[in-house]
């Protein structure tokens, strides 16, 4: 039960820094925004926040948002990645903005913001996962993440566990 309480505490803190950093407000200027991953699923453990932004002009949108974040000075570190001209297996084709925040617990929190041409896949995936989620499965996933039992991306954990849950 302590793991679930810690997950809830981290989830609440993630929502707080999302608000205080005005992240969604900045991103909404550049396109359609969707919070995905652990925060959207409320299966929070690692200190990361995943967001996708659908925009027509990926480069201008991603650079514009990055510059706004830098000017706002709400984060301690900023990174930018080009996965259009420099694609990588297992990564979407787009641009990524990473924002880093040192939490009150001294730990480093990371926002991973992808600027993409189409986010419909993420919307569909999130809907499927949420429909298969129940409290028992939620607890099992959080415990797996907390105990480091699976050294894979959370999305693979969700696919594996939630698909099994739908078959039962």
Topology:
Layout: H1 2-20, H2 23-27, E1 32-36, H3 37-41, E2 48-54, H4 58-72, E3 77-82, E4 95-102, E5 108-116, H5 120-132, H6 135-146, H7 154-167
Parallel strand pairs: 2-5
Antiparallel strand pairs: 1-2, 3-4, 4-5
Describe this structure in words.
The protein is α+β, with helices and mostly antiparallel strands and 168 residues long. It has one domain (2-119): Beta Polymerase, domain 2 (2-Layer Sandwich), CATH 3.30.460. 49% of the residues lie in helices and 21% in strands. It has a 5-stranded mixed beta sheet with strand order 1-2-5-4-3, with helices on both faces. The two termini are 25 Å apart.
Give a quick rundown of the structure.
The protein has 168 residues and is of the alpha+beta class. Helices cover 49% and strands 21% of the residues.
- How much helical structure, as a percent, in the residues? 40-55%
Termini Cα gap: 25 Å
Lateral arrangement of strands in the main beta sheet: 1-2-5-4-3
Strand content: 15-25%
Please tell me how large the radius of gyration is: 16 Å
How many structural units, i.e. domains? 1
Query: How would you sum up the global shape?
Result: globular
Structural class: alpha+beta
What order do the SSEs take from the amino end to the carboxyl end, as H and E?
HHEHEHEEEHHH
Main sheet characteristics: 5 strands, mixed
In round numbers, the mean pLDDT is 89
Which architecture name does CATH use?
2-Layer Sandwich
How many DSSP H or I helices? 7
Question: What is the CATH topology assignment?
Answer: Beta Polymerase, domain 2
- Low-confidence parts lasting 5 or more residues at pLDDT below 50? none
Highest CATH level, the class: Alpha Beta
DSSP strand count: 5
């Amino acid at each position: 039960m302590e793991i679930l309480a810690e997950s809830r505490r981290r989830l609440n803190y993630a929502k707080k820094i999302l608000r205080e950093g005005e992240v969604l407000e900045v991103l909404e200027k550049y396109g359609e925004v969707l919070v995905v991953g652990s925060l959207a699923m409320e299966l929070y453990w690692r200190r990361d926040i995943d967001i996708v932004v659908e925009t027509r002009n990926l480069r201008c949108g991603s650079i514009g948002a990055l510059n706004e974040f830098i000017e706002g000075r709400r984060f301690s570190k900023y990174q930018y990645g080009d996965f259009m001209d420099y694609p990588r297996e297992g990564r979407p084709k787009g641009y990524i903005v990473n924002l880093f925040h040192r939490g009150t617990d001294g730990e480093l929190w990371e926002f991973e913001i992808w600027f993409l041409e189409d986010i419909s896949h993420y919307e569909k995936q999130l809907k499927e996962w949420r429909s298969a989620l129940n409290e028992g499965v939620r607890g099992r996933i959080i415990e797996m993440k907390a105990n480091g039992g699976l050294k894979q991306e959370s999305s693979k954990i969700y696919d594996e566990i939630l698909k099994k849950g739908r078959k039962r």
